[in-house]
Design brief:
This protein is α+β, with helices and mostly antiparallel strands. It contains five helices and 18 strands. It has two domains: 133 residues, Roll (Diaminopimelate Epimerase, Chain A, domain 1), CATH 3.10.310.10; 117 residues, Diaminopimelate Epimerase, Chain A, domain 1. It has an 18-stranded mixed β-sheet that branches. Strand 3 and strand 4 form a beta hairpin. The protein is globular, with a radius of gyration of 18 Å. The structure holds 2,6-diaminopimelic acid. 2,6-diaminopimelic acid binds next to helix 3 and helix 5. It is an enzyme of class 5 (isomerase). It catalyses: (2S,6S)-2,6-diaminopimelate = meso-2,6-diaminopimelate. Belongs to the diaminopimelate epimerase family.
Length: 276
């Protein structure tokens, strides 16, 4: 039996293990099994908490299909709550090592529990020469792509992980599933990409639906919402603070000296032992 804790951040859900409890397993296989919503506990991703030589703590992230992702915005908020409330970290501001670099996090308590987490996601990267080796980046800002005889404008940046953004007037899940899969696996993205459909509500509000590489549709994607915030500021008139509506809640973003700050909730769903 493996002790675990399950969290969700705006509906994006994760299983968190301590590395000492799972070091004997193939983590890619463990992620596929534990994230399975019928034969496992069920989640969008798996997070491993481990010691770091360069930060206060390290977060490894695996998608539900077992693939490794460089970062996870909703996941790191849940991870911050996990390490703080389990007294692995005993301060409310700390650094987390990820494959996308070191992320600065701050937890805010309400009734002695972490209620809100703010994460500095760093500066978005717009060109492939800058990004970590674990991803790729095609340099698209508002470029035209022909998909199924449709001319679509896409933009692609790296913020925590690789994200592609399309602006849409309305949400159409069936159409988005087709487009999402197509772009995720397009040859210009040799390591695949997450695909975000962004609807502008007004200057300070957008709504985002994300097709996540390695998962599919999720109820929210923190780094995807951040990517939409960045591209929206690059292409359209938008303030440096924005609320992003996702399927089951909202995330808040602010640009400060080029860094993208994300604030949002993190909730504990359950703790238990996984019969693996
Ligand atoms: N849900 C995550 C993103 C996961 C990205 C992952 N799907 C990948 O890049 O492979 C978030 O809240 O930022």
């Amino acid at each position: 039996m493996i002790p675990f804790q399950k969290f969700q951040g705006t509906g994006n859900d994760f299983i968190i293990f301590n590395s000492s409890d799972v070091e004997q397993y193939n983590l890619n296989v463990l992620a596929q099994n534990v994230c399975n919503r019928h034969f496992g506990i069920g989640a969008d991703g798996m997070i491993i908490s481990k010691q770091s030589d360069i930060a206060d703590i390290k977060m490894d992230f695996f998608n539900a299909d077992g693939s490794i992702a460089t970062m996870c915005g909703n996941g790191i908020r849940c991870f911050a709550k996990f390490v703080y409330e389990n007294e692995i970290i005993k301060k409310n501001k700390f650094n987390v090592e990820t494959l996308a670099g070191i992320m600065k996090v701050e937890v805010f308590e309400k009734n002695n529990l972490v209620d809100l987490v703010r994460v500095n996601l760093g500066k978005p990267l717009l060109s492939s020469k800058e990004i970590p080796k674990a991803s790729n980046l095609a340099e698209f800002i508002n470029e035209e792509m022909i998909i199924e005889d449709e001319r679509l404008k896409i933009s692609s940046i790296f913020i925590g992980t690789i994200h592609t953004v399309l602006f849409v007037k309305e949400f159409d899940y069936n159409y988005f599933e087709k487009i999402g899969k197509y772009i995720e696996n397009h040859k210009i993205f040799p390591y695949k990409t997450n695909v975000n459909f962004c609807k502008r509500i007004d200057k300070n509000n957008i709504e985002v639906l994300t097709w996540e590489k390695g998962v599919g549709f999720t109820l929210a994607c923190g780094t995807g919402a951040a990517a939409c915030f960045v591209i929206n500021r690059l292409i359209n008139d938008s303030d440096n603070k924005i609320q992003v509506k996702v399927n089951s809640g909202s995330l808040y973003f602010e640009e400060v000296d080029g860094d993208i700050l994300m604030s949002g909730p993190a909730k504990l769903i359950c703790k238990g032992n996984y019969n693996y």
